[in-house]
């Protein structure tokens, strides 16, 4: 039986976090046997807001090495760098011409991120990439005809947009794209900021204490978890609305132990926040030590280039076939009917 296809990527805006691991990478690894996976480093998305050249290069290399260190297998999944497959940008333009500005203005992430840019530098300068990036994301997806797109909660609206654009193109031009469904993990689709647990843990946060990077120094990680915001109740109970900090620690523990929230609550019954933090810390540290050991082996070898070449070749075959079909259907190839 043919495997179902999945596609996903992680933006190279910073150092990959525990949120990226639990919400994305851990699931990619789990699903790579069952699905035909296309996983890329979203470096074109990485330049949406200003970023130093050397920082970007470093983020790309680190991300790829971390994909492998976390367990993605180049013999199972097709792993590549987004900008190596020029069809992503080409399709993004064609989709842009079939998208309304109103649809993009409504995106919650655009509203959030554009208001942050304004607040940070006190000007009205908003990079147009912030508005347009969901269209590039739609292209990233539709190019590969996946049945499923694994995403965290915050990306749901963008998947909806990709579906709308795909459906619009299909009804305008004929059978162009497979319309994908989103795949959201039941648990861990939104790991929260350690200092402000009303927000998502984010790699581009200006406060390093608010996130755990997979390559963080182990002592720093312990300190970050120790100083994670909780509440004064000293009751280990999952209640996202009233106890977001504690609920976040419970979620992290459950995801890393592969147990349910109820099992975690049961485990910590009658214990205090000190114990909760200590045990969460032990789990995170064990995970990070394993990842960091593998990362060191990979980053210092020439495996990365070899694997990427292999991944890009496979991705290119699918992407070039699709872009040709799109160009023909849109009428860009004057020789084709
Ligand atoms: N905190 C999170 N909890 C669960 N899942 C998360 N993801 C990201 N943060 C969390 C999931 O990881 C995948 C790749 O996301 P991304 O890095 O491309 O973009 P993002 O969602 O915008 O993540 P960041 O860290 O907040 O990026 P920046 O700082 O650049 O804006 C997605 O599946 C995402 O849901």
Category by helix and strand content: mainly alpha
The distinct bound ligands, ions and cofactors come out as: adenosine-5'-tetraphosphate
Number of structural units classed as domains: 2
CATH architecture of the largest domain, please? 3-Layer(aba) Sandwich
Which parts are unreliable, with pLDDT below 50 for 5 consecutive residues or more? none
How many β-strands, per DSSP?
5
Keywords: Aminoacyl-tRNA synthetase, ATP-binding, Cytoplasm, Ligase, Nucleotide-binding, Protein biosynthesis
Motif ('HIGH' region): 12-20
Family: Belongs to the class-I aminoacyl-tRNA synthetase family.
Main location: cytoplasm
Mind explaining what this structure looks like?
The chain has 337 residues and is mainly alpha-helical. It folds into 2 domains: 5-184 and 303-330, Rossmann fold, CATH 3.40.50; 208-297, Tyrosyl-Transfer RNA Synthetase, CATH 1.10.240.10. The chain is built from 12 helices and 5 strands. The chain has a 3-stranded parallel beta sheet. Helix 2 links the parallel strand 2 and strand 3. Helix 3 (87-96) runs parallel beside helix 12 (303-330) and helix 9 (244-257) crosses helix 10 (261-267). The protein is globular and about 75 Å long. Adenosine-5'-tetraphosphate binds next to strand 1 and helix 1. A motif ('HIGH' region) lies at residues 12-20. Keywords: Aminoacyl-tRNA synthetase, ATP-binding, Cytoplasm, Ligase, Nucleotide-binding, Protein biosynthesis. It is found in: Cytoplasm.
